[in-house]
Design brief:
Radius of gyration: 20 Å
Number of strands: 0
CATH topology of the domain at 53-153: Cytochrome Bc1 Complex, Chain D, domain 2
Distance between the termini: 73 Å
Strand content: under 5%
Oligomer: single chain
Structural class: mainly alpha
CATH superfamily of the domain at 53-153: Cytochrome c-like domain
Shape: elongated
Mean pLDDT: 78
Order of helices and strands: HHHHH
Helix content: 40-55%
CATH architecture of the domain at 53-153: Orthogonal Bundle
Length: about 160
């Protein structure tokens, strides 16, 4: 039997996994907090997504900002920074995520969008988010989605 020198095991792989797990857990906990307890991100975080135009719906800036924050947390990975359906996960799912700027989406009623965000869309990778987002938060996301409309969203875009 040959004696082998003792090699200490590096904790690096375990620490990295623990840090990643902690970040995921913190994100999940933050998402489940009631709206009044959830802090808005610090300035500069999530600045990649900004409203393209002012909404005629008369939504106050706080509603739009909260909708933008929830969009970044929940929708961005599939629908992309501009709502064009080119998010990081878009190419991994079939059918591809909808382009939220086009008439096919923008032509839907707010209630229709609310139902889709709540319950998902059968036959697509779009899942429901009613357990993660309160009704008020879902309406805020819809208010923000309206700001993503293409300048001339027409039926030809669908």
């Amino acid at each position: 039997m040959v004696a082998r020198p003792h090699r200490p095991v590096s904790p690096a792989p375990y620490v990295a996994g623990g840090v990643a797990g902690a970040v995921l857990l913190a994100s999940a906990v933050t998402l489940l907090l009631p709206d009044e307890n959830r802090p808005l991100p610090p300035p500069g975080v999530g600045d990649v997504v900004r409203p393209v135009k002012v909404v005629d719906g008369g939504h106050d800036p706080l509603t739009l900002e909260r909708g933008r924050v929830y969009y970044v947390q929940i929708c961005l990975s599939c629908h992309g920074t501009r709502g064009d359906g080119h998010g990081e996960w878009a190419y991994r799912v079939t059918p591809r995520p909808a382009d939220l700027r086009k008439a096919r989406t923008q032509g839907r009623s707010d209630q229709d969008l609310f139902d889709i965000i709540s319950d998902g869309l059968v036959g697509t990778p779009m899942i429901g988010w009613k357990k993660q987002l309160s009704p008020e938060q879902r309406w805020q996301v819809i208010a923000y989605l309206r700001t993503l409309a293409a300048p001339r969203a027409t039926q030809e875009d669908s």
